[in-house]
Amino acid sequence: PSTAAVSRAMLPDAANPAGNVHGGTILSMVDEAGWTAATRYMNQKHTKDAKPACASLARIEKVDFLKPMFIGEIAEVTAQVTHTSPHSIEVEVNVVAENVMTGQKRTTNRARAWYVSKEFRNGGNADPVMAVPRMKYASEAEMQAGLARYEKQKQSRTCHHRPPDKSRDDRDTIASQHPVEEGDATLIHVLHPSDCHANGVAQAGAVLKLMDTAAGVVSVRHCRSNAVTASLEAVDFMLPLYNGDLLEIAARPVFTSKRSMDVEVNVYAQSLNKETKSLAATSIFTFVSLDRSYRVQDVPAFEPRTDSQRARFELGLKRYETRKAER
């Protein structure tokens, strides 16, 4: 199976206010390694007459930030193709931080991503996804395990973990110490060539970093402290994004427990030749609050006031209880 490795020194420009490596930076490297492995797989038997293929992230499973990564350390990100379906490629990604002074290494993140592939064309294309060559497995058990993961993620994509989106005009207007509506954040970003692959299709990692940034703004506003990413739920990319597209990344708090908060992030995309915008990606990011000694501290609670907010809060409580049961 195709593999890929990304190694990078973590410099100050990758830091969050707490001094750790920005969660979005790690997510971007995860996609970079995963994209490389998937694209290599699609082109491993390239011939003169074959159409060049370029992978695109369709879904990334839930990602946990197991341990922090610090500035000055080396991030080693490895990716390997672990399963294929007729039209998708599963890639397993591991992130390791190395302290070059001591030589010690520790795993900071694990991720599982699903890619589709299209013919490589400058400016992208709307062609159907390409057929994926069948992977050769070491054993029948390995193939069956991969098939089970494929069916599980396929079923998960049909289940929405939040109620249908309603008008943002339903925000609560009752003042409180941490009113929900005041904690919202919206980032506006135009996709540049630096955000895209060579064919003009946006790098999913660049979008994930923007999502993490928007969620981070919400968490800092609400907690009035440094806050860091603890995890994110699975992200489905519903449509391709291109160089020049206008993105609106809307984030809002939906749940708090004693020591964590969930932030819902929706990415809306609008091409320059269209008047309407479409939902491109959505996820839930979980953050923890840090005190001045960078220790986890309690999160200020809020009470939702509208039916829509209460529905999202109830879903957040269910996610929280599920996470506790899985520990």
TrEMBL record:
Q: What GO cellular-component annotations does this UniProt entry give?
A: cytoplasm; cytosol
Q: Compositionally biased, Basic and acidic residues: which spans?
A: 162-173
Q: Which UniProt keywords apply?
A: Hydrolase
Where is the HotDog ACOT-type domain positioned along the sequence?
Answer: 1-121, 181-293
GO BP, one example? fatty acid catabolic process
Question: Tell me, what is one Gene Ontology molecular-function annotation carried by this entry?
Answer: long-chain fatty acyl-CoA hydrolase activity
* Active site as annotated: N16, D212
**Disordered: annotated span:** 149-174
Q: State if Hydrolase is listed as a keyword.
A: yes
| Pfam families assigned to the protein according to its UniProt record, in alphabetical order | 4HBT
The protein's name: HotDog ACOT-type domain-containing protein
> What organism is recorded for this protein?
Monosiga brevicollis
